[in-house]
Amino acid sequence: MRKTRRMKKTAGLIALCLVLVLTGCKITNDTDEQPYIEQINYSNLIDTSVQKQLAEIMNSADISPMRQQVFFDHVNQFNNTVSSEGMAAGFEVKQVTEEKYDPYAMQEEWDAAYPDFMGYNCRITAFGLFGDHMTIAADAETREDMILMDMASLEEDSSAMQNDKDMDRFRVLYSTVPTDDTKDVSVHVENLRSDWKNRGIVFDNNPDVSLISVVFHDAWDGENQLFIGHTGVLFQVSETELYFVEKIAFQEPYQLTIFNNRIELNDYLMTKYDTGTGQPTAAPFIMENDELMEGYRSK
Predict the structure, then answer these.
(1) Is residue 18 part of a domain?
(2) 297 in a domain, yes or no?
(3) 3-state SS string over 76-120?
(4) Residue 170's pLDDT band (cuts 50, 70, 90)
(5) Is 235 exposed, middle or buried (0-12, 13-18, 19+ CB in 10 A)?
(6) Looking at residue 160, what is its pLDDT?
(7) For a FRET experiment, which of 42, 162, 197, 245 has its CA 20 to 30 Å from that of 89?
(8) What pLDDT does residue 30 have?
(9) pLDDT (tens digit per residue) in 208-254
(10) Cα separation of 280 and 270, whole Å?
(11) H or E segment at 66?
């Protein structure tokens, strides 16, 4: 009797495996089951009370007073230069794809005030805040073809960099990374991690703060490479309270967004940046420090 039951159980498992193979089904997990978010709760840091709240979070995450001061100086510089129309002073709710402000008007206002200075983008802002929480070999190889605008901006105003060593570390972190001609994200993740390790990029193990990087695969003129196309700093206040800080673009606002978990953060970023269809390159992927972010999923 025992042998018969065992044989029936084995046969059942084999049949189940055949069904999975033939139908292409997969066992779902929490990431698959959670629907993509449609709205976000965000602020453009105009209100001083929101800035104070963020400063308290930064203090708890050991962001230095000097780096905080530079960040808030840049926030206020931008907010005092462009019109606040369409920007969120406190926290507001909007659709993920909704854009309430006019980026072209902001561009014109900024250019009128600073005709020779592009301003600060996501990479400059994120590094300026997070710079003390990673070790980077300043003399490592650099590949700067994707950060030429960043470097031009930093030549005009390098205040986000604490010193010349920071400038060198910035070049190393945001250098392109050679990769394979494949759509397999796991291959690109390992290529990125290996390259960072070889060039001496090491992240602190601080549970309260991490660097979030949206990595793109580019295949131009037969050369496959990875580059960080967007980035921000994530502060984890509790298991269900995550604050993401970013500069949307050179001439677009700073934004602080609250998420319940990393899947929501993933959905927000992938909705904005996973927009290609039928391209020969891999989908963007999201790194948290030097690991693929938990909850990552493509659209």
Answers:
(1) no
(2) no
(3) HHHHHHCCCCCCCCCCEEEECCCCCCCHHHHHHHHHHHCCCCCCC
(4) very high
(5) buried
(6) 97
(7) 162
(8) 54
(9) 999 999 999 999 888 999 999 999 999 999 999 999 999 999 999 99
(10) 18
(11) helix 65-81
Q: 3-class SS at 50?
A: helix
Q: What are phi and psi of 260, to 5 degrees?
A: -85, -25
Expressed as residue numbers, the domain containing 241 is 25-292
Q: What is the distance, to the nearest Å, from the Cα of residue 6 to the centroid of all Cα atoms in its chain?
A: 50
Task: Report the alpha-carbon distance of residue 21 to residue 15 in Å, rounded.
Answer: 10
Model confidence at 29: pLDDT above 70: no
Burial zone of 276 (CB within 10 Å; 0-12 exposed, 13-18 middle, 19+ buried):
middle
The structural domain count of the chain equals: 1
DSSP H or E segment with residue 51: helix 48-60
Average pLDDT of the residues of the chain: 90
| pTM over the 0.90 mark | no
Inside any domain, residue 5: no
Looking at the predicted structure, is the pLDDT value of residue 6 above 80? Answer: no
